[in-house]
Amino acid sequence: MSTATPASTPERILHRLDWKVIRRLDGILQGDYRSLFYGYGVDFAGLREYQPGDDIRYMDWNVSARMNAPYVRQYHEDREITAWFLLDLSPSVDFGSAESLKRTVLIDFVVTMARLLTRHGNRVGAVFYGSRIERMIPARGGRIQTLRLAHDLLHQPRLARAPFTDLTPLLEWGLRAIKRRSLVFVVSDFICAPGWEVPLSLLTRKNEVLAIRLWDPREVELPDLGIVFMEDAETGEQVYVDTHEAAFRRQFRQAASQREADLGQAFHRAGVDVMSVSTDEDLVSAIVRFANSRRQRRK
């Protein structure tokens, strides 16, 4: 089933984001998109000893161990970035409110980033993943490429049911297929089987990788709505629960808190920066918060 509606065409989406997101980002960031992306350098230039203030993400741990001193990798500056969007389109991304699903946030984020990158002469490509690799869009530049991404995302069929999502094949695709150092966005709610942090960590060794974590407030805090019918978006398992019971809501909140902690540790082990975007949050606010956080860490 297609997700497109007459009101959500690629041109309409791009026009809305140009006015409501991209122009505001231009004003706030004042063109300083390097605060979002470190990796303008794409070609390896050499190694040198670590100096205070260097980005530890470029540390070469193998060489540092051999030389018994910290060394960092250097790259030639290149004005062109190749960016890849590795997109989790499993059933759980169709969770959210009537106003905004996680899938809607995913589309807006991808189109916004593609527009920002391609208008500066960069190339973007994408991989769609459900229970398997569904589609690959080769990296190209220009406004037409941004519109193609929007079109294909709008018309990507939703999966009614699927086994519990395993992101490992998506990340392994990135390891095999991305040959040159690139900017890689892994966009997912990370409601999935464990084990993905290992290929994510390997992907980070050769690329600049950002994890874009989609979430909905109702996945963290369950409101008091009385007896409600709940369904697992991934497996289709259905159950009635009494949300009026304070003990049940407390257990739900504790489980969500533990899941958040486990996820944070997994990202830390993989060595990636994370941008969390909620279905009820302004996208500009999320992007600016992330940019400011990265800027502070680089000082």
Characterization of this structure:
With 299 residues, the chain is α/β, with parallel strands linked by helices. It folds into 2 domains: 10-39 and 81-298, Rossmann fold; 43-76, no CATH class. It is 39% helix and 23% strand. It is built from 8 helices and 10 strands. The strands form 3 sheets. It has a 6-stranded mixed β-sheet, with helices on both faces. α1 crosses α4, α5 packs parallel to α6 (197-206) and α6 (197-206) packs parallel to α7 (246-270). The termini are far apart. The mean pLDDT is 81.
Q: What does this entry show, briefly?
A:
The protein is α/β, with parallel strands linked by helices. The protein has helices spanning 10-29, 61-67, 102-118, 143-154, 168-177, 197-206, 246-270, 283-298, and strands spanning 41-49, 71-77, 82-88, 123-129, 133-140, 183-188, 208-215, 227-231, 238-242, 273-278.
The CATH superfamily of the largest domain is von Willebrand factor, type A domain
Helix content: 25-40%
What structural class results from the helix and strand content?
alpha/beta
Low-confidence stretches: none
In angstroms, what separates the terminal alpha carbons? 48 Å
Specify the CATH architecture of the largest domain.
Answer: 3-Layer(aba) Sandwich
Named CATH topology of the largest domain: Rossmann fold
Q: What is the radius of gyration computed over CA atoms, rounded to a whole number of angstroms?
A: 20 Å
List the total number of helices.
Answer: 8
Q: What oligomerization state is this entry in? A: single chain
Number of domain modules: 2
